[in-house]
Amino acid sequence: MKIDPRFNFKTRTGSDPACPSALGYFFPAEFHRHEATWLSWPHKEASWPGKIESIYPAYSEFVAYLAQGEKVNIMLANQKMQDFATAHLARAGADLNQVFFYHFPTNDAWCRDHGPCFLLNEHQEMGKAIVDWGYNAWGNKYPPFDLDNQIPEKVALLLKIPSFKPGIIMEGGSVDFNGKGSLLTTEACLLNPNRNPQYDKAEIEHFLMEYYGIQQVLWLKDGIVGDDTDGHVDDLTRFVSERKVVTVVEQNKKDENYQVLQENLELLQAFRLPDGQALDIVELPMPAPVIYEDTRLPASYANFYIANKHVIVPTFRDKNDEKALDILSRCFPDREVVGVDSWDLIWGLGSFHCLSQQEPAYL
Question: Entry's InterPro entries (predicted)?
């Protein structure tokens, strides 16, 4: 597809009539059918200090499930890393005919946050597009991040599709969509001064509407303990259909997460969709605190990933693992819900949703 030069934008103010929403683009829900899932192969030992070798079995099992229903596009540095990845994926039984490698070096593995954010268009002939938000590793916490920040542009050039550059910081894990005009996020993350201190809440909302093609922003408050992203919503509350969300709750009133999650639950109960209807809310338990080297980790069943054939859920060797899987199975009757052990993976402060970014398909 030839790229219309009108679509090669530099920084936008959020009021440009040629922004994605004005052109008919929108961000589909994750439960919309995928063309592929994009991943950045884990290689940064500092993200899993002393444990990086132990994460590859679970990561490869994740890829194997993905490959049963869609293409898996893996970005990595070079042929040596590709050979290493191929060996692990083969041991996990992944269908390598469904796995495609691209030599796009990254600083880290968190593709949800640095990867391409794909848009569809209400006019299918317009094709797909990418929003290339700025990325600063969650408020400049983990430099360098220059390679990660280049990924959306590289993917847009690879696929020969338009790329929109809003000129502000935004991570994929900070937002969740129902595909029908509603977006969930948190004030703790999107209004954090380490992201976009020059913009207020109303201005951030305007960017979300203009570049994601949504009608409303549903604001939760804070995130869970141990989340170094300052409160990503993909550890809290997720759309599982146009009207239904699952949201994590903590039963132990003495737990640090109890009050925060109760406040978010109350907000969800008060929210109304654009048609005036309330959300259908399903409560999801939390695992017992996962602590490693005196650090509480952001273990959450909400960090599942919705693939074409499976919903892959992080599990934590906890009594609530099966309960969470059962609840999610009832939310996704058309997909197989599977748990994959994330005991070591969560030492990196994220799990399967943090590691992946979907590319939607035209139906």
Answer: Peptidyl-Arg-deiminase_porph
Cis peptide before 144 (omega within 30 of 0): yes
Whether the full predicted model's pTM is greater than 0.90, yes or no, is yes
315 phi and psi angles, rounded to 5 deg: -120, 160
Tokens of 93: 């039984």
Residue 354 bears catalytic tag:
yes
Give the number of residues written for the chain: 363
Residue 294's CB is within 10 A of a number of other CB atoms, namely 5
Q: What is the 3-state secondary structure (H, E, C) of 290-322?
A: CEECCEECCCCCCCCEECCCEEEEEECCCCCHH
Closest alpha carbon to 302 in 310, 314, 294: 314
- Residue appearing with tokens 């969709």: 273
No. of H helices and E strands in the chain? Answer: 9, 19
Give the tens place of pLDDT for each residue, 4-52: 333 333 333 344 668 999 999 999 999 999 999 999 999 999 999 999 9
Measured between its terminal Cα atoms, the distance across the chain in Å is 18
218/272 Cα distance (integer angstroms): 9
Q: Both tokens of residue 24?
A: 């008919």
Instruction: Show the tokens assigned to 243.
Output: 């009207």
User: Hey, which CATH number is domain 19-360, 2.120.10.10, 3.40.1280.10, 3.40.190.170, 3.75.10.10?
Assistant: 3.75.10.10
Kindly tell me if the per-residue pLDDT of 114 is higher than 70.
Answer: yes
